[in-house]
Amino acid sequence: MNYEAIFCDETEEYRIPVEPEAGGTVILRVRTAKDDVKQVWLATHAMEKELTKTNSEGCFDYYEAELELGEEPVSYWFCIADEEEFCEYNRLGVNGDKNEASLFRVVPGRKLPDWARGAVMYQIYVDRFCDGNPSNNVKTEEYNYLDHAALAVPSWDSLPEPFDVHRFYGGDLQGILDKLDYLQNLGVEVLYLNPVFVSPSNHKYDCQDYDAIDPHLAVIEKDGDYRVRVTAQANLEASNAFFASFVDEVHRRGMRVIIDGVLNHCGSFHKWMNKARVYREAEGYPQGAYESEESPYRDYFYFSSQCWPDNKNYEGWWGHDTLPKLNYEGSEKLWQEVLEIGRKWVSAPYYVDGWRLDVAADLGHSMETNHRFWQEFRQAVREANPDAVVLAEHYGDPYAWIHNGEWDTVMNYDAFMEPLTWYLTGMEKHSDSFRPDLRANSEAFWAQMSGSMYRLDGGLQIAMNQLSNHDHSRFLTRTNHMEGRLGNRTSEEAGEGVEICAMYQAVIMQMTWPGAPTLYYGDEAGLCGWTDPDNRRPYPWGHENKELLKLYRTAIRIHRSRHCLRTGSFYRLTGEGAVIAYGRSQRTERIVTVVNAGETASAVTIPVWKTGAALDGSFYNLLRTGTDGFDQKKDSFAVKNGLLQITMEGHSSMILEEQI
């Protein structure tokens, strides 16, 4: 039996429809080598059903069966036999493992937003992207935060400092509007905004008011000190209205908006806590939990003692008293209020297209609470906006949350950022360590990827695939193989000795890997930076790396113009030494990506027949990168007996397309 020819996944060519309705039917298909097997069965935990061979194409036979569905999810796998051998096939390939995560799974009625599948996303740390309205900027010494006076950074070109949360460059929502032409020309389809709600920090992961957009990012009509600026109803109403018009303009251009939800904790400035007394004299705000044990928000937080007023210790996330953890177990009112916040921003008049959930696995004090809340949160969001996406920040295995219908997908660390970074640079994603044994190690790369991709349980096509973000060093900095952070390293060192060719390879992989390729603002311009806060440098308008920007535009155009790169099947083709190759296919489209992370040239034989390519045909170059740049010369490469033989130069990559 030819095990390498057996293939099935959960894309539209092997499950019809991909997302069947409850009570409906679904056609399930599997592929084998032509005239190679005698029988194929569909197996579930409740039944077995023999499949019928429906057609043959090239060197493959296709078998299918119709399955009637009820309301409950169905896990399934295939049993395949010839005269002498028997095997079982699931998400892990030819494998007898009955681990639930390894089985194919259809969830009747489950719908993922089509717009998110393979969408090109762009993450914006708003304060550092573009200052479109200087009149709303934070003023120097407007307030104190963590014993530091707020600082309006005088020069856009200056760099972050080791303690940076009180330093503001002035980026705002108007600045994003001013750059929408740039973003559309780049090929961006979705904007993911770091937090935009009222907050005293530039990162805004310490929310002060979930019901209001920060006037410093939007509109200040009533001026004065900080307390006036962020509590005056005129400013909050005008800022919320501006945000609604902002989203409307993005939608008018055919783009989407995802916002950041920091719901595990808030900030000590929050109106519910009011430790900083910001709301003490403001109209319409009850006393905060830190001010009085009679506060209506008292049980929104966990206080270590009921002794009042001498002991005001409350639980902070990871012990940070500026980040009081929300006490979901202790307050049904809090629970319902946060669900309403989830509904509010995806509904009229804002119509945001989804939530990114910060430290989502930390919410609550037990996993039981965590899972129950996120299940209700996603349900509330989808009822308000059926086309909204709910994705989570999560380090580690996301299977339980996706499997149980609590998150649609995740920021894809385990099945993208980390394995890719080790393979291309040998660096840990914070630049905290260098592992030369993992650099250019195709075997380790595939082991990491294979062990993580199937755990996404249906969320793979919309997983947020990033090279960099606001929590990790810039990918381009990782290519210099230096360990360190701002403080023990200088800002200048972050850009020393970088290998632009490795960045080129990363872009090629980002635009051809399953999922939603997500740029962190400035990656396309060649920004460097150690981990937080150095990774939050202002966008270098007028000083971009023009060649890297051109490569991004070219690679994004290829990604967006090929359906197989959005929703097609994925094939692991080879891993030989420093070289990897993988394929994507859908209907008549076939793309093969080849990457050589090693320093020397390497000849490689790629079994492109696995993608369904003709046994004797050819592929041509769509985009090739190397140490001397990149090109789109349409060089042709012959396929003989289903094999493509090619020599890859050191530190090179290539996107190949079958000539039809």
Describe this structure in words.
The chain is an alpha+beta fold and 660 residues long. 21% of the residues lie in helices and 24% in strands. The chain contains 13 helices and 33 strands. The strands form 7 sheets. Strands 25, 26, 27, 28, 29, 30, 31, 32 and 33 form a 9-stranded antiparallel sheet that branches. The protein has an 8-stranded parallel sheet with strand order 22-21-20-19-16-11-24-23. Strands 3, 4, 7, 8, 9 and 10 form a 6-stranded antiparallel sheet that branches. The longest helix has 20 residues, at 233-252. It starts with 14 loop residues before the first strand and ends with a strand. 51% of the residues are buried. The model has no long low-confidence stretch (mean pLDDT 96).
Describe the protein's topology.
Blueprint: E1 15-16, E2 25-33, E3 39-44, E4 48-50, E5 52-57, E6 60-68, E7 74-81, E8 86-90, E9 93-94, E10 104-106, E11 121-124, E12 144-145, E13 148-149, E14 151-152, E15 167-168, H1 173-178, H2 180-186, E16 190-193, E17 197-198, E18 209-213, H3 226-231, H4 233-252, E19 256-261, H5 332-346, E20 354-357, H6 367-384, E21 389-392, H7 399-403, E22 409-410, H8 413-425, H9 442-453, E23 464-466, H10 475-478, H11 500-510, E24 516-520, H12 546-561, H13 563-567, E25 569-576, E26 579-586, E27 589-596, E28 602-606, E29 617-626, E30 629-631, E31 636-640, E32 643-648, E33 652-658
Parallel strand pairs: 11-16, 11-24, 14-15, 16-19, 19-20, 20-21, 21-22, 23-24
Antiparallel strand pairs: 1-2, 2-6, 3-4, 3-7, 5-6, 7-8, 7-10, 8-9, 12-13, 17-18, 25-26, 26-27, 27-33, 28-32, 29-30, 29-31, 29-33, 31-32
Helix pairs in contact: 5-6, 8-9, 8-11, 11-12
